[in-house]
Structures are given as C-alpha cells and as structure tokens.
Write a structure and sequence with these properties.
By secondary structure, this protein is an alpha/beta fold. Helix content is about 40%, strand content about 20%. The strands form 5 sheets. The chain has a 6-stranded mixed sheet with strand order 4-3-2-7-11-12, with helices on both faces. A two-stranded parallel sheet has the order 1-6. A hairpin with a 5-residue loop joins strand 13 and strand 14. Helix 1 packs antiparallel against helix 3 and helix 10 packs across helix 12.
C-alpha cells in the first residue's frame, strides 16, 4: 500500500463532496470487514520507485463518545493540513495508516485497522470506512493498547527495516488505556488460536521498538485536566504525552511534531497556520520541542 502520491487538488475535490453530507452519510454505518482485525496478518509501509524513502505514520482515533466528532473534523478539513505540512517540511514520502479505537470490554467494534496510504483517495477511503460506534464503557479507560499491539506485532515498515528510522504512532483520545487484554479477548478480537494475557506496558515497549509513540490527550469535555488520566499518560510516555486544548488542531500538531523531529524549526512550521492553530500547536508541543530527538539517516534518532 501507499504507492500513489498526495495531491492537494485531489483532496480539495474530494472534501468538497462532503459539504452537503452529514457525518452519517460520510462514515460507515456498520463495521467494514476490511478494517476488522480478526485474522490480521501484516500492514506494510514499503518503499517504491515513487516513494523511495517511505515514512510510516499511524494515527489512531478514539471513536467513543464525544471523541467521535474528530474523524469528521479530519476528513472534512484537516487531512490536507496533515499531509501537506509533513511534505512541505522535507518529509517527502509519508505513508499514513488510519485506525480507530474503542473499548475491548464493552464495544462491538473496539478496533478498526486501515492500510498505510499516501494519496487523498485511499486515505479518505479508509477514513470513510471507519464505523464511529460512539459507545465506550464509561470507566475512564479505552483500548489504546490495541493500537500498540497492531504496531508492534502486525506491521512491517521499510523506514525502520532498511534505514533504522522509526515510524510515528499517535493515539488520540481523552481517557487512559486499559492496562491489559485477556487471552480470551485476544482470541475474540484478533482471532488468535492461542494467546497469553498482555499488558499495556508490554505492548507499548513492543510498539516503541519500531515507532516513536505519542498520545494526544484532547483536553475537552468530561476529562479536561483529569488528574487520573493525565497521570497515567505521563507515567507511560513522559515527554511524549501531548495535551491539546482544541481537537481541530490535531493534524497540525502531528505534522508539526514530525517536521520538528526531522530538524525543522517549529516557528517555521507554524508560520503557515492561522494564529489560533499556531498558538495551540506551539503550546501543546512546548515541552517536547525542548527535548526533541532529531532523525538522522541510518542512525535512528539523536536526542538534543
């Protein structure tokens, strides 16, 4: 996957078709089989003649409760910001996988997995395929650890395998993660014949071998400044935990962080945004930028 190239014009044309549509008309109204993880093998991000130095980026959207409005914001308005900002700041070949997270205890569809893509048509196709279940368990926990499971055990990415450059993984939501998945539920949701219980710490470590792992806490709604939620993520991710006060700035934040980690000054990146977005992104990334790890060819990252 991920062989065609991004076109701003193509995205503008596609996004215009959403203007007269409601969210229910844009997104899948039931689970789409191609996104369900039962029997999943490997999601691949590969180099090609058109993309000789691919960079794997995973974006996992919480589709429970109020977080369900975020996929709509991204597909209507923000996807162009994500891709164009990354490309315009020197990362020419991003390949982005869009996925969705729910609650593996209570939801009918707790995990949905797209493919790594580079072009507007395929990226919007996978976004449209997301079933925004809008449920969740009401326990201040969702299944973000399932994103780490897919990343660590079910992806193969050339940026890491060929160039020792980690990809990027972003989970986005407003709660903390469940701390484990039982063997029975691994069999149910992933279709494993045999499985042992896994923990959030274990799965995060596996994902971090291949990816720079971040979580964006959408600091709005019921869990704004919630000490339990914030404490969990600070313990798990430290400086790679991002607090964002406006969900409309998610894609700008992701793209800016990728650009900064590739050596671009944050002021240069945010100068292209409107004043409100620039301020939100700068505030959200203030701590991270001070401790940024710069990607260098064949050496992974060097921390400044």
């Amino acid at each position: 996957m991920g062989y065609p190239s991004w076109s701003d014009d193509a995205y503008t044309h596609i996004s215009a078709t959403y203007t007269s549509k409601s969210a229910d008309e844009i997104f899948a109204t039931a689970a789409v089989s191609d996104m369900l993880p039962v029997g999943i093998d490997i999601r691949e991000s590969r180099d090609s003649d058109e993309h000789p130095e691919s960079l794997a980026v995973m974006v996992w959207l919480d589709v429970t409760g109020s977080m369900g409005r975020i996929p709509e914001s991204i597909i209507r308005n923000e996807l162009g910001t994500l891709m164009s900002t990354i490309i315009d700041n020197g990362v020419q070949h991003p390949q982005v996988l869009m996925g969705a997270i729910g609650d593996h205890i209570s939801d009918k569809v707790p995990l949905q997995v797209g493919q790594f893509e580079s072009d507007a048509a395929n990226l919007t196709k996978w976004l449209e395929s997301i079933f925004v279940e809008g449920n969740g368990g009401g326990q201040v926990m969702e299944s973000y650890l399932m994103a780490w499971l897919i990343a660590g055990r079910h992806t193969s990415i050339d940026c890491f395998e060929k160039r020792n450059e980690k990809g990027f993984l972003f989970t986005i939501g407003d709660e903390k993660s469940w701390d484990n998945i039982s063997s029975d539920l691994l069999k149910k949701w992933l279709g494993y014949a045999q499985a042992d219980e896994v923990t959030d710490v274990q799965l995060l470590e596996e994902a971090q071998r291949l990816y720079n792992v971040y979580h964006i806490h959408v600091n709005e709604g019921s869990y704004r400044d919630n000490s339990e939620v914030l404490g969990y993520w600070k313990k798990m991710l430290g400086e790679r935990f991002i607090i964002l006060n406006d969900y409309h700035s998610i894609c700008a934040t992701i793209a800016t962080l990728i650009a900064v980690q590739h050596g671009v000054d944050i002021k240069t990146v945010v100068s292209k945004f409107d004043a409100k977005t620039a301020g939100m992104v700068t505030t959200a990334l203030a701590t991270i930028v001070q401790n940024v790890a710069i990607v260098t060819p064949d050496e992974g990252v060097i921390k400044l």
